[in-house]
Design a protein that fits this description.
Elements: H1 3-10, H2 15-40, H3 48-75
Helix pairs in contact: 1-2
Length: 76
């Protein structure tokens, strides 16, 4: 929606006033989204044991993908 229409809808005296509110609103939205992300994303403390487990799983996944690619190339 064009800014001059938003200005009229909100009853602002100038487009500059509308822009200032828009910038403030964007900052507020970003802050609230970060708060929501922090609540939704679990915090994981990476201990050496967890790090080794993650790396081991990644290696297994990578090897499985390589095998699948090799099998696909052999059948083509």
């Amino acid at each position: 929606m064009p800014i001059h229409i938003v200005k009229e809808l909100l009853g602002h005296q100038s487009v500059k006033q509308t822009e200032e509110y828009a910038i403030t609103e964007q900052k507020s939205i970003a802050k609230e989204m970060n708060t929501l992300r922090d609540k939704l994303v679990p915090k994981i403390e990476f201990t050496p044991e967890i790090s080794i487990e993650i790396i081991t799983r990644m290696e297994a996944d990578l090897n499985a993908m390589k095998k699948k690619l090799d099998d696909t190339q052999r059948t083509c």
